[in-house]
Structures are given as C-alpha cells and as structure tokens.
C-alpha cells in the first residue's frame, strides 16, 4: 500500500516508522533540513514541499497514494491539504489529524470524515474509566462515538432473572444487546431470552449512553 504522510513532526515521523516495514511510505515536509535528516534516519522517500500546494502535490505524484494522512501540527494546513488531495487528486482514503478537538466538526462539515484527535481519545478513555467502571470497551467505532462493550452480570443485578423483553423499556436509546456468552454457549438474545447471573453481555452503545446502559443492566 502506498501511504503519503504530510508533516514530519513527531506524529508523522513515528507513523512513518511504524508503517515503513509493511507499506511504501512517503513523507512530505516543508523544512529541507528535517527532510534530509529523516531520509537518512529511516531510509524512506522524504519530499521537501508545501502540502497545501496543488502543483507540488501533483508533481510529487500524491494522486497515486492509497492513503493520504495530513499529520502536521496545524489544523488549517491539515484541513486544506486533505481537501485538495480528496477533491482534486481523488485519493480514496484521506485521514486528518485534528490538534484542537473543537475543530473536528469543521473537518466533517467540509467533507473530511476521517479525523483523529488524540485529545478527544484521551478524554474519552478518562470518561470511560471514571463513569463506566464495570463496562469494558472492546472496540470503538465511528470516530469514537460508538462502542462495542462487554459486561458481566452479577447476581444482584436488576436485569438478572428477567427476559430481554422485560428490561427493554429501561434500556437507553441507541443501545442494542448483541450477544450473551453463558459458560460455553453463545446466545443471540431474543425477547424471551432470560438473563442469568454470570452472563457476559456484549452490547453496542453510543458513548454518551454507556453509563445509562450500565445502570439498566447492572444497577450501579
């Protein structure tokens, strides 16, 4: 896979270093001295130029990339570079780093759906640890807004001994029970499925409803 990364700061550098063994990685950086140092250090192609210059991006053959990552330390550069590469060079997968999480909505509104904000990710992890201690997040989807979670049902849980249909009114919206693991059995829950103590329940929930889901099933 051909991956072009704009920005050779710490994020771009370590991303390139991580991917270079299994992909063709090209770095774009405005500072020529940094380009020379990283090219010598990593042994990959590092191109000196401006990631928001369409002519430069065309000359650098960025349009042949499978993935373009805008990873500079400036949100305005990442936004403009992502738009140029997506709209003019027609690269199918464009990922933008967002330094200020308040700018995420701007990126999405301007048709850059794949964004990464380390600040938002850390904040979400803290939120999960503090408010949803009995739920373990297995997978995060939709830029961190949707989760697949797992929880174990204790004997004193309000949901223990009740059918899925009986507890359904107490479940928050946008939450779905997906699977119940009971001993060696994997059960797809239906309305008449009875939850019992010791069940491991897998559910899909939005991040803002995870604590409500915990209260409905576990009671704490």
Note the topology.
Elements (H helix, E strand, L loop, with lengths): L1 E5 L3 H10 L4 E6 L2 H11 L2 E4 L5 H6 L7 E4 L4 H13 L5 E5 L6 H6 L5 E2 L1 H14 L4 E6 L4 E7 L11 H4 L8 E7 L2 E3 L12 E7 L3 H9 L2
Parallel strand pairs: 1-2, 1-4, 2-3, 4-5, 5-6
Antiparallel strand pairs: 7-8, 8-11, 9-10, 9-11
Which structural class do the helices and strands define?
Answer: alpha/beta
Order of helices and strands: EHEHEHEHEHEHEEHEEEH
Q: Could you give the distance between the termini?
A: 47 Å
Shape: elongated
Q: Report the average pLDDT across residues.
A: 86
CATH evolutionary superfamily of the largest domain: NAD(P)-binding Rossmann-like Domain
| Low-confidence regions | none
**Number of H- or I-type helical stretches:** 8
The major β-sheet equals: 6 strands, parallel
Q: If you compute it from the alpha carbons, what radius of gyration comes out, rounded to the nearest whole angstrom?
A: 23 Å
Give the second-level CATH assignment, the architecture of the largest domain: 3-Layer(aba) Sandwich
- Give the tally of structural domains: 2
Q: How much of the polypeptide forms β-strand, as a percent range?
A: 25-35%
- The CATH class designation of the largest domain is Alpha Beta
Helix content: 25-40%
Count the strands? 11
